[in-house]
Design a protein that fits this description.
With 180 residues, the protein is mainly alpha-helical. Helix content is 47%, strand content 11%. A two-stranded antiparallel ribbon has the order 1-2. Helix 1 packs across helix 2. The longest helix has 25 residues. The model has no long low-confidence stretch (mean pLDDT 85). The structure holds zinc ion. This is Reverse transcriptase zinc-binding domain-containing protein.
Length: 180
């Protein structure tokens, strides 16, 4: 029995690696997105291998999060183009899909990063410059101790272990309302 043809190029059997990577239409979308990021061409035989090599293509070390998002935005957009062809009889349009990828990545950045005050249309124009990964800065929580009131007593306890099981220690401070 003959397999179903890929709805995007209509000249190859539909298969996962073909649809998401090897199909000339899909590859054109990957290439356009790489050009958007000024990344030189590189290819792969399977989508899983491509996912692994994608990380290494990242144009800058502090833009890894948006770069990884781009991968999945492209895959999502190819699947959308596929479904539009199959279920809505709507021809895949490379330029529309490229815009969809850009919008998706920019929306993601707007929602999850520091660009939230800037309009998506403006962000899209210079996303590459703006999409620097935020480094996680740990802010130590300040601890304020207040003495108990009146006749109350306050018992602060803490413990720790070295290994599990291992040496353990526990200690505590019992305080009344007097500050000293
Ligand atoms: Zn195809």
């Amino acid at each position: 029995m003959a397999g179903v043809d890929c709805p995007l190029c209509k000249s190859n059997p539909e298969a996962v690696d073909h649809l998401f990577l090897l199909c000339p239409w899909s590859w054109e979308l990957w290439t356009s997105c790489k050009q958007w990021w000024e990344v030189s061409s590189c290819t792969s035989k399977s989508i899983s291998e491509w996912l692994h090599s994608w990380n290494g293509l990242c144009p800058s070390l502090n833009r890894k999060r948006v770069w990884n998002t781009l991968f999945f935005a492209i895959v999502w957009t190819i699947w959308e183009a596929h479904n539009n062809e199959v279920f809505k009889d709507k021809a895949a349009n490379l330029s529309v899909s490229l815009d969809s990828v850009k919008f998706r990545v920019t929306w993601w950045f707007k929602n999850f990063s520091s660009g939230s005050d800037v309009a998506v249309t403006l962000l899209m124009l210079d996303l590459k410059e703006r999409c620097i990964d935020k480094t996680t800065v740990k802010v130590p929580s300040s601890i304020v101790w207040s003495p108990p009131v009146d006749e109350d007593l306050l018992f602060n306890v803490d413990g720790s272990t070295r290994g599990s099981p291992g040496m353990a220690g526990v200690g505590g401070v019992l305080r009344d309302s007097r500050e000293f």
